Amino acid sequence: RLKRTRLGLDDFESLKVIGRGAFGEVRLVQKKDTGHVYAMKILRKADMLEKEQVGHIRAERDILVQADSLWVVKMFYSFQDKQNLYLLMEFLPGGDMMTLLMKKDTLSEEEAQFYVAETVLAIDSIHQLGFIHRDIKPDNLLLDSKGHVKLSDFGLCTGLKKAHRTEFYRNLSHNLTNDFTSQNMNSKRKAETWKRNRRQLAFSTVGTPDYIAPEVFMQTGYNKLCDWWSLGVIMYEMLIGYPPFCSETPQETYKKVMNWKETLIFPPEVPISDRAKHLILRLEPHLTSPVVIKHLILRLEPHLYSSNTSSSG
């Protein structure tokens, strides 16, 4: 459970910066009185687009941290000052899925099966609590020392990033650079371009719309199926080397996502099995149902205990 003791920055020694994002950074810190090591997420209040969201974020976070789920990054303390919100989380030395995917060209289907299986169970566990994550992406899939998946950033991005808003794309200039497909890139060059731009996207306050379901953009009502859409996009990226709708600009990506029935294409030069293609398509919310997902969970669960691919490499 979240500890309510009164703490401040002086109670922790900063060891090093281990991550940076749009709204702040993550530091490896040590609590001075106990010697325990944590990941301290520092969120700059001034950079959050809607200040009134901070209270909502903290309330949602408090509920989730009390769930004590195997699949959720644990939070131990939180405090704030005039500038920042500080969240003390468990430190996961395996890094995140974004970094793993940037290191490797693609994952084998066996490796992808392991990570997808764990992420299915992680997403299902938060849905069982009555929550929708809304921002499932490789940056938010953290890996422990043995390579097992844990979800992070519950509610911390919801409503804060322009990337979730249709009007952001409508209001932007139409002077766009050509998207990837118009340059006739092969899959290898597309993957190289994506990886070159990827970390910059993670730092952007706009974020990347690549993993966001169409109905979240439309804001006409969505349900937990939007999280399964995001997992389908991630599985595609694991096997192909880049997400299915990636483009030179967020606006072009948005257009592709909204027109996904025409733009979701498997490049013929990247060999993946029909079974893998079928699973990616089943994760699109327009083609799935809670019954299908439950069947998927039951089918994938045994792989957690039989797979020896539980390493982040």
UniProtKB/TrEMBL annotation:
EC number(s) on file: 2.7.11.1
One function term, GO molecular function aspect: metal ion binding
Cellular compartment(s): Cytoplasm
Cofactor(s) listed: Mg(2+)
Cleaved signal peptide residues: none
Main location: cytoplasm
GO cellular component: cytoplasm
Keywords: Acetylation, ATP-binding, Cytoplasm, Kinase, Magnesium, Metal-binding, Nucleotide-binding, Phosphoprotein, Serine/threonine-protein kinase, Transferase
Enzyme class: transferase
Catalytic activity from the UniProt record: L-seryl-[protein] + ATP = O-phospho-L-seryl-[protein] + ADP + H(+); L-threonyl-[protein] + ATP = O-phospho-L-threonyl-[protein] + ADP + H(+)
SMART domains in UniProt: S_TKc
Superkingdom field: Eukaryota
Chain ranges of the Protein kinase domain: 12-304
Binding residue positions for ATP: K41
Keyword Repeat: no
Family: Belongs to the protein kinase superfamily. AGC Ser/Thr protein kinase family.
UniProt xrefs under PANTHER family: CHROMOSOME UNDETERMINED SCAFFOLD_135, WHOLE GENOME SHOTGUN SEQUENCE, MYOTONIC DYSTROPHY S/T KINASE-RELATED
Protein name: non-specific serine/threonine protein kinase
